[in-house]
Amino acid sequence: MVGREDWWCRSMASGGESGRSAAGRALLLSGAPGVGKTTIIQKVAHQLSAYELRGFFTEEIREGGVRKGFKLISFDGQSSVLAHVDFSSRFRVGKYGVNVAGLEETAASLLQSDPPADLYIIDEIGKMECFSDRFRSGVRRLLDTDRLVVATVAQHGAGFIVEVKERPDAAVWEVTRSNREVLPERVIEWVRARLLRD
Fold first, then answer.
1. pTM of the model
2. Which of 27, 47, 81, 196 has the most CB atoms at less than 10 Å from its CB?
């Protein structure tokens, strides 16, 4: 008998339970905060480091063991503060003020589709990032091309978050505590299968 986890992994690796976007060029990882989406992204990027990667991942800023904010780290070594408790920005998510100006600059350079990279990685498409018009426009343009994209996306949210999840050309995989250990390899298989077609 096929175990439920084995069935789930095969189903996800072929484009999701519904089979949506099995041949698509965008893979979205969704799940609850803290479930491990960024860790999956980091593992995938490490295993695929021989390819040209463009984009960023998000890392916590901690002071004295307390989370104070978040920073964006690009795959070419750049970093910028995304949000911090000390920011007085009018753009806020909970106790964090969001550095929208910095995000606009980051989006402009890291989401360029030309010259093309082998893989674009975005961590994440969330409430903070969606304050930026340039970020939303950059992601939308990227998804409208034939570029290969792996992104994390907030589990809940409206507007652009819903728009991205409902794209017919994007597969959405849910990250849970029970599948997060096997997902990095599944994502890598998904990416390599598409790179081999190019």
1. 0.87
2. 27
